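Lab notebook, page 48
Experiment: co-folding of the full assembly
Goal: obtain a model of how the components sit together before planning crosslinking
Operator: M.T.
Materials (sequences as entered):
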Amino acid sequence: MKEFRSEKPIDLSINGEIRSVLVRPGDTLLKVLRQNLGMTGTKLGCENGDCGACTVQRDGIPIKSCCTLVADVSDSEITTIEGLRGTPIQDAFVNEYGFQCGFCTPGLMMNAEALVRTVPDADNEIIREWLESNICRCTGYETIELSVKRALAEGQEN
Ligand code: FES
Ligand code: FES
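Observation: model returned without errors.
Model output:
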């Protein structure tokens, strides 16, 4: 009988570094980031693809890491919230107070960074549509939208 529980080594490229981990076939990227690698900036929310707390980027595109098998991303570049340290999107969220408890913030920042990079002329409608994939229970979204607008404006200045 085939042994499905055995662990196998794989290499992951995360925030520009190669990380070697032992994984099982059913392990999600979220589980490996948090439990195997101790990268707890990526949050565990619904584990169902609905809340966006677990959002990371795969080759620059936001994905829900709770719904992604780690075995499927071994040939991709993964960016997590730890990889956005000191970036303009982080400064924008800080300067506009785009968070309260902060639980949703890593996922929102991963999503917002991709918006600013790929749709630099995004209008209000696009910003709201883009942010629909992330749920925040605290802010009412106003300061989050202001943070994204600030990052867009600063991107256009530079
Ligand atoms: S924890 Fe992944 S979408 Fe909620
Ligand atoms: S700041 Fe608390 S859930 Fe968004």
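Interpretation: The CA atoms of residues 100 and 138 lie 6 Å apart.
Next step: discuss with group before ordering constructs.
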